[in-house]
Amino acid sequence: MDFADTKITENTRGAYPINFSQNARIPCVAGHPTDIIFLTCDAFGVLPPVSSLTPAQAMYHFISGYTAKVAGTEVGVKEPSATFSPCFGGPFLVWHPNKYAELLAEKMKRYGARVWLVNTGWSRGAYGVGKRIKLAHTRAIVDAIHSGALGRSKTQRDPVFGFDVITECPNVPGEILDPRSTWADKSSYDRTASKLAGLFRSNFTKYESGASADVRGAGPSA
Questions:
Q1: 83 pairs with which residues across the strands?
Q2: Which of 60, 72, 80, 178 makes the best surface tag, with the fewest CB within 10 Å?
């Protein structure tokens, strides 16, 4: 295998039998999840590292599937650009995205699962100005979700996107949890947040006809 050959893909993957992992659980069957993580990479630098979503917000963001194409994982991409892929896997969907979102909400309600939006993108500014959120901080956030600590953390409502932003997390600096506070130019942050909110709203027009009023109202408001 030539790992330097990128003519097919820049993002090489490998697979191996599950029993090659010494601590694997076989058969690979577990209970229903208590927490669900939506992973996004925000190149605009305005989404918080982690936020808590209501069922309606979870449906909205699941249908939207927002992230950014970044250099190194997409052929021909030199700078990050926003992209929306319904249910974070649009090419593979059989049903309408709204159907999958309804199934998600029903499972959340039945089993009491919480949904978190975890952002691994930029902080302290957009791409070219800010820096990527450190992997160690993302790992600490995921650990806090698994331990239940994040479910007990304080939150504040984001005035643009409407979700609850986590304001304290073990082993994560508090100042990076509020994205606006990390920007030197607050007015630039406001303009950028408004721009991303507009992209969300524009993308969601394709799904409004089949979405409930609660879901339509769960997106950005400004």
A1: 67
A2: 72
Chain-centre distance for alpha carbon 184: 24
User: The dihedral of CA 41, 85, 15, 11: what is its sign?
Assistant: negative
SS3 177: helix
Say how far apart CA 112 and CA 114 lie, in whole Å: 7
Residue pair 96/57 in contact (Cβ under 8 Å)? The answer is no
Please give the class, per CATH, of domain 32-216. Answer: alpha beta
Q: What is the pLDDT of residue 75?
A: 60
Global pTM?
A: 0.87
Across the chain, mean pLDDT equals 92
Distance CA 161, CA 197 (A): 7
What average pLDDT score do residues 127-144 get? 95
Instruction: For 46-101, write each residue's pLDDT tens digit.
Output: 999 999 999 999 999 999 999 987 755 556 656 668 899 999 999 999 999 999 99
> Token pair of 115, please?
């949904």
Both tokens assigned to 9: 């893909």
Query: According to the model, what pLDDT value does residue 210 have?
Result: 86
Spatial neighbors of 107 by CB under 8 A, at least 6 apart, are: 32, 113
Q: Do residues 170 and 144 touch, judged by C-beta distance below 8 A? A: yes
Question: How far is it, in rounded angstroms, from Cα 20 to Cα 18?
Answer: 5
Cβ atoms of 138 and 120 closer than 8 Å: yes
Cα separation, 73 vs 134, whole angstroms: 18
